[in-house]
Amino acid sequence: MTVTLEPLRYTDARRCAQLERVLFPGDDPWSAHAFESELDSGAYYLGAYHEGQLIGYAGLAVLGRPGDFEAEVHTIGVDPSWHGHGVGKMLLRALLERADSVGATVFLDVRTDNDAAIGLYEAHGFTRIGVRRRYYRPSGADAYTMARPAHVGEGSG
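Given the sequence above, the corresponding structure tokens read:
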């Protein structure tokens, strides 16, 4: 089972939106237009592909200026049939490599009931720094805000 990571393509926006509806049914899943807007913004988006089919996606925004960058994980989503195969880990590591290349501290929000994602993030150096009450809409689910310190010296400039 070979999975490759490549820049997300505009033609994948509909598939991303389809996966969003499956992955986040009780909340406000992103539309194809939202993914296209993210690509237009210049954010760093990757697709995970198996035999040419999109099975996952992830996005990272880097903000600030040299010496003072911050990064925010906007989304990571993996087709449920691929859960447990390391695709989410591959995507997260690629995002972290990008953040490390500019020495950015990385932030993200995750549902407080998403134990698998929380475990993945903690295994990659994230710690919980706060709680956003009723962050997700319309479900009203809470989110942890998590952070991972900048890894200066690992490709940063």
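Residues 78 and 88 are 6 Å apart (CA to CA). Try to locate this feature in the token string yourself.
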